[in-house]
Amino acid sequence: MKPIAVNPAALPAPSGYSHGTLHGNTLYLGGQTALDKDMRIVDGGIVAQFRQAFGNLLTTLREAGGEPEDLVSITIYLTDIADYQAHGKEIGKVWRELAGPVYPAMAGIGCTELWQPEAMIEILGTAVIPDERLKVPQE
């Protein structure tokens, strides 16, 4: 069995990477920043960027038949941890709106910068999708 790229049409077309890689029923979700469909980082600060980045990740998850409860691990890279912490309640509200009361293993890691200079956050993850919901993209 070889890995299969998962690249939803709703997200910007990847070049040199995949939004996700499916191997068996494990989906490795590539890092998502707050890029919108026009390849621009959304305005509005860390809460708006969290909403877009996490939404992008969930779009990839759903493309393979996954749901938020299938997430087993999330890593969040942040250029300003204090700003994220200051908006923690708002970010938590967005999380529950998009994913419900699902909390996989998580890590938050501070970094000096991300691929797009205006990006404040990048989220990557791993999900294990039950066979009965798994949708394998056609190559």
Automatic annotation (TrEMBL):
CDD domains: YjgF_YER057c_UK114_family (cd00448). InterPro entries: RutC-like_sf, YjgF/YER057c/UK114. GO terms for cellular component: cytosol. GO terms for molecular function: deaminase activity. Pfam families: Ribonuc_L-PSP (PF01042). Belongs to the RutC family. This is Enamine deaminase RidA (YjgF/YER057c/UK114 family). It comes from Nonomuraea polychroma.
